[in-house]
Design brief:
Length: about 450
């Protein structure tokens, strides 16, 4: 047997230690004596532990902290990753109906184009693509997602015709259909609710906040004297009270994180069963503010406070990039811009010079410069990832990271190669496991 590459042995609470395996997402807790025995086994030969403490040795095997010497653990991760990313059972189509937006957030990487919106020709090509995709025998579930720009700016003109066609095509082809929006939430209204009620379907939404009240309004405002925070909160309440699923993404920095635990106070009038079922807080650090520091301690404190208030919440340090990889990592996904350019990822500037291809007149996808295959083969080429203890969680980030660095011949690590940053991920996963077990008890 051998000690798994994906194990982490870290101090826990008091005098205890945690032994965590990132492949199985499993943890056990050790006292100092067992920890010293394990470390001796790691350095002197793990099978020696069988003679000294056979019950402990067998426990490590049963919980897969020790694996067969012949097992190629990286290949095991690769097999799972490939199975997920190459699956033909699901398809995610993301559409940018416009690159215009009603706000100008400083961290936005996109070029806003005021008069940009889909014309009839683009809508017709997308409708053909929807029909072509929905008719595929292997497909089971089809997700239609709207991004931008702000996708609700031209909702009646550009979005409704696509959704109407999508729902009909899914019904004809007996496919499960899902609809999602990434929006700033400011334009949500009763008309939006009524439209989906008329179709007997609920969409899911990701809506962003830039901190609590004043901090948010410094970034996202209608005018110098009018912010947007309370209007967005009002609209989120309208959605969840009408049983729409909302992920409230909190974009945080070292300046605005402290008071974010107060955001749930503005949902105090929402019934417990509604907020528990239909709302989740999801914290992401603004990329321009990303740096090595201890801000995760404040994040953990705020997440705990939000959960104590009865809300669901998650943060940056809990990746699951193998089993739940990014939509853009999957073969069956595409982003279609308002002008017919296609991309794989929404976290990019949608200028034509950056496109991966285009949608043709018959609704077919034309990938230029072998882009799709280059992207699908980009993972598992980064040397630091292949020996990393959290590879089954992180997997080098997304395929965009892997392709860009790999084609330049550069090794990289999204955690800066810093073991303390990786340990933050491990400790977050352990906290998740402990919390889930307490909830079940």
């Amino acid at each position: 047997m051998k000690y798994s590459q994906f194990n982490s042995l870290l101090p826990y609470e008091g005098d205890k230690y945690s032994l965590y395996n990132s492949f199985n997402n499993n943890v056990i807790f050790l006292d100092p004596v067992l920890k010293e025995l394990l470390e001796a086994g790691i350095s002197e030969g793990i099978d020696n532990l069988q003679e000294i403490y056979p019950a402990f040795y067998e426990h490590l095997i049963d919980n897969k902290f020790l694996v067969e010497e012949s097992l190629n653990e990286v290949e095991a991760v690769k097999k799972i990753s490939t199975g997920v990313d190459e699956s033909l059972r699901f398809y995610t189509l993301t559409i940018n109906p416009t690159m215009n937006c009603n706000f100008k957030c400083y961290y936005c990487y996109e070029t806003h184009i005021k008069k940009s919106r889909m014309e009839v020709g683009e809508i017709q090509r997308i409708q053909k693509f929807i029909d072509n995709t929905a008719s595929k025998k292997e497909l089971e579930e089809f997700t239609l997602s709207f991004f931008g720009g702000e996708p609700l700016l031209y909702f009646n003109r550009n979005v409704i015709p696509v959704i109407d066609h999508f729902l009909i095509s899914c019904k004809i082809n007996n496919k499960a259909g899902n609809i999602a929006f990434t929006t700033n939430g400011y334009l949500i209204n009763q008309e939006f609710i009524d439209y989906f009620d008329s179709k007997d379907i609920k969409c899911s939404l990701q809506i962003t906040l830039d901190g609590y009240r004043e901090e948010h309004d410094k970034v996202r405002y209608v005018s110098k004297t009018k912010g947007s925070y309370f209007e967005i909160i009002k609209n989120v309440k309208l959605l969840i009270q009408n049983h729409f699923f909302v992920t409230l993404r909190i974009n945080y920095t070292d300046d605005n994180l402290e008071d974010t635990n107060k955001i749930p106070l503005d949902f105090a009038d929402v019934a417990d069963d509604i907020k528990e079922k239909y709302l989740i807080f999801d914290f992401h650090r603004v990329w321009q503010n990303d740096q090595l520091d201890d801000l995760n301690l404040m994040l953990d404190k705020n997440l705990a406070a939000i959960r104590d208030d009865g809300f669901n919440a998650k943060g940056t340090y809990s990746p699951n990039n193998v089993y739940d990889s990014c939509y853009a990592d999957k073969r069956n996904s595409v982003v279609i811009n308002y002008n017919g350019d296609i991309f794989k990822c929404t976290a990019r500037d949608f200028e034509t010079v950056n496109r991966a291809g285009y949608i043709d007149e018959e609704g077919g996808l034309v990938w230029e410069n072998d882009y799709l295959e280059r992207r699908m083969s980009a993972k598992f080429r980064n040397k630091p990832c292949l020996s990393c203890k959290i590879m089954p969680l992180c997997n080098g980030g997304c395929s965009q990271h892997a392709m860009e660095h790999g084609e330049e011949g550069n090794d990289y690590c999204i955690y800066y190669g810093d073991e303390n940053e990786k340990n933050k991920v491990v400790n977050t996963k352990i906290q998740d496991i402990v919390r889930e077990n307490l909830q079940e008890a």
